[in-house]
Amino acid sequence: MTKKKVWLFILKCIIVAGPVILVSLYASFGMMYYSDGEVPYYLWNRDFCAKTHDRTYDVVILGDSIGQTSYITDELSEGTVNLSLGGTTPAENYYVIKEWLEKNKAPDDIFITFMDRHLLDSDCYYTRCLYFHRLPLSDNLEIMARAGEYGEPSIGIDDCYRELLAYQLYWPGKYTAAMVNSRFTGRHESNTMVYDMVNKGRGRFVYADVSYEGDEPVKLDSFYTNPFFDRYYRDIIGLCVEHGIRVHLVKPPMMDLFEFDEGYRRDIYGYYDSICSQYPNVSFDWFDEGFGSDCYADFAHMNEKGAKEFSKMIKEKYPDVFDD
Amino acid sequence: MQFNSGGFLVFFPVTVFIYFLIPDRAKKIWLLLSSYFFYMCWNPKYALLLLFSTLVTYLVGLFIEDKGPGKKTFLISGILINISLLFYFKYINFFLDLLREGAAGLNIELNVPTVDVVLPVGISFFIFQALGYIIDVYRGDVKAERSFITYALFVSFFPQLVAGPIERSGHLIKQLKEPKKFTIDNAESGLRIMLWGYFLKLVIADRCAVIVDAVYADYSLYGPLELILATALFSIQIYCDFMGYSTIAKGAARVLGIDLMDNFHQPFFAVSVKDFWRRWHISLSTWFRDYLYIPLGGNRKGKLRSIINLLITFTVSGLWHGANLTFVLWGLLNGVLQVIEGIILSLLKKIKGYGNISWDKPGLRVILVIKNLVIIELGFVIFRAQTVSDAFMIFRNVFTMKPAELYAERTLFDYGLNRFHLYMLIAGIVVLFVISLLREMRKVRTDWLKNGREAVRVAICWVMMVMIVFSLDISGKEFIYFRF
């Protein structure tokens, strides 16, 4: 076996493995070119939180897509930034705010808004948070370890570490579908536009500015949380309290098609009151008067009209917070 | 651990690397440990079953060789113990169901509970391989293996442990005995073979599965053309799935310097059912030939007996595939078809001028191949259906036209594959057809990627890799033969 033969063999292996390497590299560096329309705000959020900003943001909004769509930063104040991430739970948000506080001066106020289900399970941790590489490996490992500890099933899946590795390495199987669907570069223009829009709106993202047309009522009779997400939720609040931040837990208006009974109301107040009594400087507000369906883009997310209305309500409710 | 899992991508290079790095005396132990680890990735406790079967057949082999007159007793004991394991883990609930149904037919209510048992992966494969060994020792075809490590490795050798090929002791044990040295030729050829196996599985089989699963999941919604298309695709799926596995196994073993037997030989170019079984799952069909059909008397005891032997062999072969009447019926059908073929052939031979017909003429051969494909496809409907009545309903739907208004308007893209994946599937099938045709015409070698100039070979591998990479998002399906 000559040295030349060995090197030739290695070269051939590298050439044949080339497509895997190339696709992984493209998956890593070309996300804005092929990923779907949610990539811009994830990347914006990652870029924005990683930087130490010259100016101070005195209000930060955290949460999931409800937090992201309901608050219009421009309507609230110049010093408001929306770090909410669609599809996330308190778990991901804990690391987002932790990173922000490590790099930037703590804000005076934080508004936290999640839809009920994100305190119960995670539907997008793998397909968004890991997919878009929002959090570093160490944070993801901690989330998974904790999910395992709590027996949380939506994040602590059987193959969670294998999945994590696949996303960390930009395994082609995770990204080729988006590449093919975008014809490899077909989404760059729209993603760049959205990125700029999110940047201009300091984190605000609009899913679609249309009006919801459904009319099927939905009954809500109970609310409960999963201990794993509850723990992270309380960790966020604990972290904020540690930094002397006032925390406002906000439940925005739901569409008036939602009908909730006393049981639901009791569960909601029972849960949030327990948090408020555990920490100082934490308040809970539920805007329980629903908006009409013309204020929503879909079943859960406000459109521009709804968000404007809600932002106005928030501003009126907290005049000392948004005083510019 | 599956060959198409991320775990295998780590396991295989690590196993190979350490195997060639460690001293010769430790190589077998390392391979044995790796093989058990590979098996335990599914269910660690079933490694005990593998170990038990290995231990029993190892001891039986030694006893048979050492005890002259009592060796038959040991052979029968060894066979019974292993068949009992297979029966319990694979067929017990099937048997109880049959018993309950039989009793219900006689108006007797049997309250026998279902046994809570999980089918151990690959049990049919490693037990058959071990049984083949003790029969070979009994017949004196091979000497009993004295080294337990070597023998345990023979039963559990990871490339072929869970889905074959079912190797013969005479072929594999002697290869496993000798520690192998790393050679570039073996590594290169093995990796090329593995690449072809992955191509078959990921580019073709997993894409076919999307359409087949969609149609077979609710066959009553589909018309004759769709059912025929799904069945044709199923035959391609199962072929590429199983041949893909066997090919990856062969390639992985080759990297380690070990040659496994070929399991397929262009089965869809067969001109008769008999010919098909000479080309399909060769390691199993030859196993049944050597260890069941011939011991039953083969064709040495008259025509009627040979027909019965053939039917028994194929029915058992069907049952081997799974605890379901569909498999039994499929096996029996293949036996019956061969009996009919034999009768037709003997009648044809009586016609004057039959001997002058040149069956190798391309035109005639194409007709025979198409005729055979149609027959084989009928069998695959039974193989794929969940129950026998489902299979007959599918046949009925194929042969009865429903009123036009009952058909949903669909295009080929409505079965779960988008345009890109459909084109990839078509490209994959074309490649498979061309390669199979060239191999059938003996224009290329079995290891067809060894043909041609170096640069062309690397380029072909590169293109195949591109196609594999763009198949990864829809793949991840379990190999079908794992269930058996």
Characterize the structure shown:
The complex is a heterodimer of chains A (324) and B (484). Chain A is α/β, with parallel strands linked by helices. Chain A contains 14 helices and seven strands. Chain A has helices at residues 3-29, 31-34, 39-50, 65-70, 73-76, 90-103, 125-130, 137-150, 160-168, 172-181, 188-200, 227-242, 262-278, 304-317; strands spanning 59-63, 80-82, 109-113, 218-220, 246-251, 258-260, 282-286. Chain A has a five-stranded parallel beta sheet with strand order 2-1-3-5-7. In chain A, strands 4-6 form a two-stranded parallel sheet. Chain A is globular. Chain A starts with a helix and ends in a 7-residue tail after the last helix. The mean pLDDT of chain A is 94. With 484 residues, chain B is mostly helical. Chain B contains 17 helices and no strands. Chain B has helices at 6-21, 24-40, 46-66, 71-105, 123-139, 148-156, 169-177, 184-217, 224-255, 273-279, 282-293, 303-321, 325-350, 362-384, 388-399, 419-440, 454-469. In chain B, helix 2 (24-40) packs across helix 6 (148-156). Chain B starts with 5 loop residues before the first helix and ends in a 15-residue tail after the last helix. Chains A and B meet through helix 1, helix 9 and helix 10 of A and helix 8 and helix 17 of B.
